[in-house]
Amino acid sequence: MTVAPTADAPLTRNQTLVLEALAAAPVPLGAYALLDRLRDQGLRAPAQVYRALDRLQARGLVHRLETLNAFVACREAHRAEGPVVFVICEHCGRARELTDEVIGGRLRGLAAEAGLALHSSSVELRGTCAACGRTAAGTDPETR
Amino acid sequence: MTVAPTADAPLTRNQTLVLEALAAAPVPLGAYALLDRLRDQGLRAPAQVYRALDRLQARGLVHRLETLNAFVACREAHRAEGPVVFVICEHCGRARELTDEVIGGRLRGLAAEAGLALHSSSVELRGTCAACGRTAAGTDPETR
DNA sequence: AGCCGAATGTTATATCATAACATGCGGGCT
DNA sequence: AGCCCGCATGTTATGATATAACATTCGGCT
Ligand SMILES: [Zn+2]
Ligand SMILES: [Zn+2]
Ligand SMILES: [Zn+2]
Ligand SMILES: [Zn+2]
Fold first, then answer.
1. What's the record's note on cofactor binding (chains A, B) (predicted)?
2. Along the 144 residues of chain B, how does pLDDT read in single tens digits?
Protein backbone atom coordinates (compact mmCIF):
# COMPACT_ATOMS: atom_id res chain seq x y z
CA MET A 1 0.00 0.00 0.00
CA THR A 2 2.22 2.94 1.11
CA VAL A 3 -0.10 5.85 0.47
CA ALA A 4 0.81 8.55 -2.02
CA PRO A 5 1.83 11.60 -0.05
CA THR A 6 2.18 14.88 -1.89
CA ALA A 7 2.14 17.16 -4.88
CA ASP A 8 3.13 16.11 -8.37
CA ALA A 9 6.22 17.79 -9.56
CA PRO A 10 7.37 16.38 -12.89
CA LEU A 11 9.58 13.32 -12.66
CA THR A 12 13.28 13.97 -12.78
CA ARG A 13 15.51 12.42 -15.37
CA ASN A 14 16.66 9.56 -13.17
CA GLN A 15 13.17 8.85 -11.93
CA THR A 16 11.93 8.66 -15.50
CA LEU A 17 14.71 6.31 -16.51
CA VAL A 18 14.03 3.99 -13.60
CA LEU A 19 10.27 4.02 -14.06
CA GLU A 20 10.53 3.28 -17.76
CA ALA A 21 12.98 0.48 -17.20
CA LEU A 22 10.60 -1.09 -14.70
CA ALA A 23 7.60 -0.59 -16.94
CA ALA A 24 9.43 -2.26 -19.81
CA ALA A 25 10.52 -5.31 -17.81
CA PRO A 26 8.35 -8.42 -17.81
CA VAL A 27 9.39 -9.24 -14.24
CA PRO A 28 10.29 -7.30 -11.12
CA LEU A 29 13.82 -5.94 -11.12
CA GLY A 30 16.27 -5.51 -8.30
CA ALA A 31 18.11 -2.26 -7.85
CA TYR A 32 21.32 -3.64 -9.28
CA ALA A 33 19.53 -5.12 -12.28
CA LEU A 34 18.09 -1.65 -12.91
CA LEU A 35 21.52 -0.15 -12.55
CA ASP A 36 22.91 -2.55 -15.15
CA ARG A 37 20.21 -1.62 -17.61
CA LEU A 38 20.71 2.08 -17.07
CA ARG A 39 24.48 2.38 -17.21
CA ASP A 40 24.21 3.35 -20.85
CA GLN A 41 21.95 6.24 -19.93
CA GLY A 42 24.48 7.50 -17.43
CA LEU A 43 23.63 5.94 -14.10
CA ARG A 44 26.71 4.79 -12.24
CA ALA A 45 25.99 4.05 -8.60
CA PRO A 46 23.37 2.19 -6.55
CA ALA A 47 22.50 5.31 -4.61
CA GLN A 48 21.18 6.94 -7.74
CA VAL A 49 18.83 4.05 -8.38
CA TYR A 50 17.71 3.78 -4.77
CA ARG A 51 16.99 7.49 -4.63
CA ALA A 52 14.83 7.36 -7.71
CA LEU A 53 13.04 4.27 -6.37
CA ASP A 54 12.37 5.99 -3.06
CA ARG A 55 10.68 8.92 -4.73
CA LEU A 56 8.73 6.76 -7.13
CA GLN A 57 7.50 4.59 -4.29
CA ALA A 58 6.49 7.65 -2.30
CA ARG A 59 4.28 8.65 -5.23
CA GLY A 60 2.83 5.20 -5.60
CA LEU A 61 4.28 4.76 -9.07
CA VAL A 62 6.48 1.89 -8.02
CA HIS A 63 6.04 -0.93 -5.52
CA ARG A 64 8.63 -2.92 -3.71
CA LEU A 65 8.16 -6.67 -3.55
CA GLU A 66 9.49 -7.59 -0.15
CA THR A 67 9.85 -11.27 -0.77
CA LEU A 68 11.97 -10.63 -3.86
CA ASN A 69 13.92 -7.52 -2.92
CA ALA A 70 12.72 -6.19 -6.23
CA PHE A 71 10.54 -3.47 -7.69
CA VAL A 72 7.68 -3.17 -10.16
CA ALA A 73 6.01 -0.27 -11.89
CA CYS A 74 2.45 0.17 -10.68
CA ARG A 75 0.01 -0.98 -13.35
CA GLU A 76 -3.14 0.20 -11.67
CA ALA A 77 -3.34 3.88 -10.91
CA HIS A 78 -4.42 3.14 -7.36
CA ARG A 79 -1.90 5.51 -5.77
CA ALA A 80 -4.08 6.33 -2.77
CA GLU A 81 -6.08 3.22 -2.14
CA GLY A 82 -5.64 0.46 0.34
CA PRO A 83 -3.61 -2.70 0.52
CA VAL A 84 -2.47 -4.27 -2.72
CA VAL A 85 -1.98 -7.99 -3.26
CA PHE A 86 0.86 -9.32 -5.36
CA VAL A 87 0.66 -12.73 -6.96
CA ILE A 88 4.13 -13.98 -7.76
CA CYS A 89 5.21 -17.02 -9.74
CA GLU A 90 8.36 -18.51 -8.29
CA HIS A 91 8.95 -20.18 -11.57
CA CYS A 92 8.82 -17.56 -14.29
CA GLY A 93 9.23 -14.65 -11.90
CA ARG A 94 6.20 -12.75 -13.13
CA ALA A 95 4.21 -10.71 -10.62
CA ARG A 96 0.62 -9.48 -10.91
CA GLU A 97 -0.83 -6.70 -8.88
CA LEU A 98 -4.39 -7.05 -7.60
CA THR A 99 -6.64 -5.12 -5.33
CA ASP A 100 -9.46 -6.72 -3.48
CA GLU A 101 -11.99 -5.02 -1.30
CA VAL A 102 -12.44 -8.00 0.99
CA ILE A 103 -8.72 -8.15 1.72
CA GLY A 104 -8.35 -4.40 1.92
CA GLY A 105 -11.27 -3.97 4.26
CA ARG A 106 -10.40 -6.86 6.50
CA LEU A 107 -6.75 -5.84 6.80
CA ARG A 108 -7.81 -2.36 7.82
CA GLY A 109 -10.17 -3.98 10.30
CA LEU A 110 -7.45 -6.17 11.76
CA ALA A 111 -5.12 -3.22 12.11
CA ALA A 112 -7.83 -1.31 13.91
CA GLU A 113 -8.64 -4.22 16.22
CA ALA A 114 -4.95 -4.58 17.00
CA GLY A 115 -4.71 -0.89 17.78
CA LEU A 116 -2.35 -0.27 14.91
CA ALA A 117 -2.36 3.03 13.06
CA LEU A 118 -1.69 1.58 9.63
CA HIS A 119 1.12 3.13 7.61
CA SER A 120 1.66 0.54 4.94
CA SER A 121 1.04 -3.06 4.08
CA SER A 122 2.72 -5.81 2.16
CA VAL A 123 0.76 -8.78 0.87
CA GLU A 124 2.48 -11.28 -1.37
CA LEU A 125 1.32 -14.67 -2.57
CA ARG A 126 3.92 -17.02 -3.95
CA GLY A 127 3.43 -20.13 -5.97
CA THR A 128 3.34 -21.50 -9.48
CA CYS A 129 1.30 -19.73 -12.13
CA ALA A 130 -1.05 -21.49 -14.51
CA ALA A 131 1.31 -21.25 -17.46
CA CYS A 132 4.22 -22.69 -15.52
CA GLY A 133 2.01 -25.34 -13.94
CA ARG A 134 1.02 -26.67 -17.38
CA THR A 135 4.57 -27.09 -18.62
CA ALA A 136 6.07 -30.24 -17.09
CA ALA A 137 6.28 -29.45 -13.40
CA GLY A 138 9.76 -28.26 -12.63
CA THR A 139 10.40 -26.61 -15.96
CA ASP A 140 11.90 -23.20 -15.64
CA PRO A 141 11.43 -20.29 -18.02
CA GLU A 142 14.93 -20.63 -19.46
CA THR A 143 14.29 -24.25 -20.36
CA ARG A 144 11.19 -23.67 -22.46
CA MET B 1 2.24 -19.31 5.80
CA THR B 2 4.90 -21.71 4.40
CA VAL B 3 3.35 -25.02 5.27
CA ALA B 4 5.09 -27.45 7.62
CA PRO B 5 6.48 -30.25 5.51
CA THR B 6 7.69 -33.31 7.31
CA ALA B 7 8.36 -35.50 10.30
CA ASP B 8 9.50 -34.27 13.67
CA ALA B 9 12.98 -35.28 14.52
CA PRO B 10 14.17 -33.63 17.72
CA LEU B 11 15.68 -30.18 17.30
CA THR B 12 19.44 -30.05 17.02
CA ARG B 13 21.54 -28.05 19.39
CA ASN B 14 21.87 -25.05 17.08
CA GLN B 15 18.21 -25.09 16.24
CA THR B 16 17.33 -25.10 19.92
CA LEU B 17 19.65 -22.23 20.65
CA VAL B 18 18.23 -20.14 17.84
CA LEU B 19 14.63 -20.92 18.68
CA GLU B 20 15.11 -20.09 22.34
CA ALA B 21 16.86 -16.85 21.55
CA LEU B 22 13.96 -15.85 19.33
CA ALA B 23 11.38 -16.91 21.87
CA ALA B 24 13.13 -14.84 24.54
CA ALA B 25 13.37 -11.69 22.45
CA PRO B 26 10.61 -9.07 22.70
CA VAL B 27 11.07 -8.13 19.04
CA PRO B 28 12.01 -9.88 15.82
CA LEU B 29 15.74 -10.49 15.46
CA GLY B 30 17.93 -10.46 12.39
CA ALA B 31 20.32 -13.30 11.73
CA TYR B 32 23.32 -11.26 12.83
CA ALA B 33 21.59 -10.14 16.01
CA LEU B 34 20.95 -13.79 16.77
CA LEU B 35 24.55 -14.59 16.05
CA ASP B 36 25.68 -11.90 18.49
CA ARG B 37 23.49 -13.33 21.22
CA LEU B 38 24.69 -16.86 20.61
CA ARG B 39 28.43 -16.37 20.37
CA ASP B 40 28.75 -17.33 24.01
CA GLN B 41 27.05 -20.64 23.29
CA GLY B 42 29.51 -21.39 20.55
CA LEU B 43 28.01 -20.07 17.32
CA ARG B 44 30.56 -18.34 15.17
CA ALA B 45 29.35 -17.84 11.63
CA PRO B 46 26.23 -16.57 9.85
CA ALA B 47 25.79 -19.82 7.99
CA GLN B 48 25.16 -21.65 11.25
CA VAL B 49 22.35 -19.29 12.13
CA TYR B 50 20.83 -19.31 8.67
CA ARG B 51 20.88 -23.08 8.58
CA ALA B 52 19.06 -23.34 11.87
CA LEU B 53 16.56 -20.71 10.74
CA ASP B 54 15.89 -22.57 7.50
CA ARG B 55 15.02 -25.77 9.31
CA LEU B 56 12.93 -24.01 11.93
CA GLN B 57 11.01 -22.19 9.24
CA ALA B 58 10.43 -25.41 7.37
CA ARG B 59 8.81 -26.80 10.51
CA GLY B 60 6.73 -23.71 11.04
CA LEU B 61 8.42 -22.94 14.34
CA VAL B 62 9.86 -19.69 13.09
CA HIS B 63 8.58 -17.08 10.67
CA ARG B 64 10.52 -14.63 8.60
CA LEU B 65 9.28 -11.05 8.52
CA GLU B 66 10.02 -9.94 5.02
CA THR B 67 9.69 -6.24 5.62
CA LEU B 68 12.22 -6.38 8.46
CA ASN B 69 14.64 -9.05 7.29
CA ALA B 70 14.10 -10.55 10.70
CA PHE B 71 12.69 -13.63 12.37
CA VAL B 72 10.22 -14.47 15.13
CA ALA B 73 9.36 -17.63 17.01
CA CYS B 74 5.86 -18.80 16.17
CA ARG B 75 3.53 -18.15 19.09
CA GLU B 76 0.55 -19.98 17.75
CA ALA B 77 1.03 -23.62 16.94
CA HIS B 78 -0.56 -23.17 13.54
CA ARG B 79 2.19 -25.01 11.66
CA ALA B 80 -0.07 -26.31 8.92
CA GLU B 81 -2.72 -23.68 8.52
CA GLY B 82 -3.10 -20.92 6.04
CA PRO B 83 -1.82 -17.40 5.69
CA VAL B 84 -0.68 -15.57 8.82
CA VAL B 85 -0.90 -11.83 9.33
CA PHE B 86 1.82 -9.91 11.12
CA VAL B 87 1.12 -6.61 12.77
CA ILE B 88 4.32 -4.66 13.19
CA CYS B 89 4.96 -1.44 15.08
CA GLU B 90 7.56 0.64 13.30
CA HIS B 91 8.16 2.44 16.51
CA CYS B 92 8.87 -0.12 19.20
CA GLY B 93 9.59 -2.90 16.76
CA ARG B 94 7.16 -5.37 18.29
CA ALA B 95 5.37 -7.79 16.01
CA ARG B 96 2.17 -9.74 16.66
CA GLU B 97 1.08 -12.78 14.77
CA LEU B 98 -2.58 -13.19 13.88
CA THR B 99 -4.63 -15.56 11.86
CA ASP B 100 -7.91 -14.58 10.34
CA GLU B 101 -10.23 -16.79 8.42
CA VAL B 102 -11.53 -13.99 6.25
CA ILE B 103 -8.04 -13.09 5.12
CA GLY B 104 -6.93 -16.68 4.84
CA GLY B 105 -9.94 -17.72 2.83
CA ARG B 106 -9.92 -14.74 0.54
CA LEU B 107 -6.20 -15.02 -0.18
CA ARG B 108 -6.62 -18.65 -1.11
CA GLY B 109 -9.52 -17.56 -3.31
CA LEU B 110 -7.47 -14.87 -5.02
CA ALA B 111 -4.65 -17.29 -5.68
CA ALA B 112 -7.10 -19.76 -7.18
CA GLU B 113 -8.72 -17.07 -9.35
CA ALA B 114 -5.29 -15.98 -10.53
CA GLY B 115 -4.41 -19.57 -11.39
CA LEU B 116 -1.67 -19.65 -8.79
CA ALA B 117 -0.79 -22.87 -7.00
CA LEU B 118 -0.07 -21.27 -3.66
CA HIS B 119 3.19 -22.21 -1.95
CA SER B 120 3.49 -19.52 0.66
CA SER B 121 2.24 -16.13 1.63
CA SER B 122 3.54 -13.07 3.39
CA VAL B 123 1.16 -10.54 4.93
CA GLU B 124 2.58 -7.71 7.01
CA LEU B 125 0.88 -4.61 8.35
CA ARG B 126 3.09 -1.77 9.46
CA GLY B 127 2.19 1.21 11.55
CA THR B 128 2.21 2.56 15.06
CA CYS B 129 0.87 0.43 17.89
CA ALA B 130 -1.50 1.72 20.54
CA ALA B 131 1.16 2.00 23.22
CA CYS B 132 3.48 3.98 20.98
CA GLY B 133 0.63 6.11 19.67
CA ARG B 134 -0.22 7.26 23.23
CA THR B 135 3.30 8.35 24.10
CA ALA B 136 3.99 11.68 22.40
CA ALA B 137 4.04 10.82 18.71
CA GLY B 138 7.60 10.28 17.63
CA THR B 139 8.82 8.75 20.85
CA ASP B 140 10.92 5.69 20.30
CA PRO B 141 11.38 2.77 22.66
CA GLU B 142 14.90 3.81 23.66
CA THR B 143 13.69 7.24 24.66
CA ARG B 144 10.95 6.12 27.07
C1' DA C 1 25.80 38.30 -10.37
C1' DG C 2 24.90 35.94 -5.89
C1' DC C 3 22.15 32.90 -3.17
C1' DC C 4 19.61 28.80 -2.01
C1' DG C 5 17.48 24.33 -2.12
C1' DA C 6 17.03 20.14 -4.61
C1' DA C 7 18.81 16.62 -7.48
C1' DT C 8 22.83 14.44 -8.77
C1' DG C 9 27.36 12.24 -8.78
C1' DT C 10 30.82 9.58 -6.23
C1' DT C 11 33.27 6.93 -2.81
C1' DA C 12 33.06 4.10 0.79
C1' DT C 13 30.86 1.08 3.87
C1' DA C 14 27.06 -1.30 6.27
C1' DT C 15 23.90 -5.10 6.29
C1' DC C 16 21.93 -9.41 4.82
C1' DA C 17 22.62 -14.03 2.76
C1' DT C 18 24.84 -18.04 0.54
C1' DA C 19 28.59 -20.94 -1.72
C1' DA C 20 31.94 -24.19 -1.02
C1' DC C 21 34.55 -27.22 1.40
C1' DA C 22 36.41 -29.48 5.69
C1' DT C 23 35.37 -31.86 9.98
C1' DG C 24 33.02 -34.61 13.35
C1' DC C 25 29.58 -37.69 15.08
C1' DG C 26 26.20 -41.52 15.34
C1' DG C 27 23.78 -45.49 13.51
C1' DG C 28 23.66 -49.55 10.65
C1' DC C 29 26.19 -53.08 8.52
C1' DT C 30 29.98 -56.89 7.72
C1' DA D 1 35.56 -53.98 16.15
C1' DG D 2 36.02 -51.59 11.73
C1' DC D 3 33.83 -49.45 7.92
C1' DC D 4 30.50 -46.60 5.60
C1' DC D 5 27.32 -43.13 5.06
C1' DG D 6 24.19 -39.35 6.02
C1' DC D 7 23.77 -35.29 8.21
C1' DA D 8 24.70 -31.61 11.26
C1' DT D 9 28.35 -28.73 12.08
C1' DG D 10 32.36 -25.60 11.62
C1' DT D 11 34.92 -22.30 8.76
C1' DT D 12 36.38 -19.22 5.13
C1' DA D 13 35.25 -16.51 1.57
C1' DT D 14 32.20 -14.06 -1.30
C1' DG D 15 27.88 -12.39 -3.24
C1' DA D 16 23.76 -9.40 -3.05
C1' DT D 17 21.26 -5.67 -1.20
C1' DA D 18 21.14 -1.04 0.85
C1' DT D 19 22.71 3.34 2.90
C1' DA D 20 25.98 7.04 4.80
C1' DA D 21 28.49 10.90 3.81
C1' DC D 22 30.12 14.46 1.21
C1' DA D 23 31.20 17.03 -3.16
C1' DT D 24 29.17 19.00 -7.30
C1' DT D 25 25.81 20.80 -10.45
C1' DC D 26 21.54 22.92 -11.84
C1' DG D 27 17.60 26.02 -11.84
C1' DG D 28 14.86 29.44 -9.90
C1' DC D 29 14.91 33.61 -7.49
C1' DT D 30 16.38 38.37 -5.86
ZN1 LIG E 1 0.03 -0.32 -7.78
ZN1 LIG F 1 5.05 -18.79 -13.96
ZN1 LIG G 1 3.09 -18.87 13.55
ZN1 LIG H 1 4.90 0.31 19.30
1. Binds 1 zinc ion per subunit.
2. 544 444 578 899 999 999 999 999 999 999 999 999 999 999 999 999 999 999 999 999 999 999 999 999 999 876 656 899 999 999 999 999 999 999 999 999 999 999 999 999 999 999 999 999 888 554 444 444
Q: List CB contacts (< 8 A) between B123 and chain A.
A: 107, 121-124
Distance CA(A46)–CA(A90), nearest Å, equals: 26
Evaluate if pTM is beyond 0.85: yes
For chain B, the residues whose C-beta falls within 8 A of a C-beta of chain A are: 66-67, 85, 87, 89-90, 96, 98, 100, 102-103, 106-107, 110-111, 114-130, 133
Q: Which of B67, B123, B139 to mutate to test the interface with A (most CBs of A within 10 A)?
A: B123
DSSP A120: E
- Side-chain half-sphere CA neighbours of B99 within 13 A: 15
Total number of domains constituting chain B: 2
User: Are residue B52 and residue B93 in the same domain, yes or no?
Assistant: no
Q: Which domain holds residue A128?
A: 77-144
